[in-house]
Amino acid sequence: MSQKRKTEQARRRKTVLLVDRHALMRRAAASWINHCPGLEVCGTASGTAQAFRAVKRFHPDVVVSEIMQPQDLGFIRELHRRQPGLRILVFSMWEQAQYGAQARAAGASGYVMKEAGGATLVRNICSVLRGRPNGSAGTPKRA
Amino acid sequence: MKATAKTPTRRDRRQPPRRILIVNGTKVWCDALSSRISRYPGLQVCGEALGEQAGLAMVGRLRPSLLLTEIVRAQDLGFIREVHRQHRRLPILVLSFSDEEAYAPLALQAGARGYLMKGVDGDTLVKGIRKALNGQMVLSPFMRRRLGRHGH
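^ Those are the sequences you sent over. The predicted structure of the assembly is below.
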């Protein structure tokens, strides 16, 4: 009984796919996200090829992907092209003022800088899932 | 029995936790390192600093058992040099995005006890922290082989 209820509860949770090349960051972010009652990490990927496979397999509600280099926006563009309805939150080392608009143009639904902490990351995931234009934690800055 | 990151040594059970100070310019990395390290027995994160000035002050105030810092630019070596000058006995472990071939030898010269790349997992990092706390040098297997050849 309780097992069934648990499964139903788990089903209602929104699923998150984490893409980050650093094992430490994947583990830490996964634990923050899993602590949030409405969210669940359905998979993680360390690179783009693995990420595409994981998206196909897990059908996440949102993909949280880091951007280490501006070129990584190509991955966001391709992901958006393959799955236009998929929400993508960019988690970036780069200034939002500089790359926020580019990320948006590539298909990202939100942009959060790594300068923000773990709590801000989780808040932004929730905002993106609610269909807010950007994280509630950060007003979108434009260059 | 081979000690792993998770197994507390006899010392861990007997002694108060070893205190780690994290100095990292990126908040989310401070959070990530702090939340990973605190899961291991015998270790405790006693403070986090986003900048080097704050980091240096916290080393003096909190007297950590180990400093975990990063190298983003060549200037960051100056921070390691300064901490090492002021606190000779404090083990400094560098966890960094920067290329280990270029920066690991420089970090060791500046006074660090070890250098690991940010791609490592929590177990490897914590094994490194424990080794550094025991006075051993911490390097990736690749860098150990490389530096070993030059007689380090």
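Strands of chain B lie at 18-23, 43-49, 66-69, 92-96, 114-117. Residues 16-149 of chain B form a domain with the Rossmann fold fold (CATH 3.40.50.2300).

Shout if you want it in another format.
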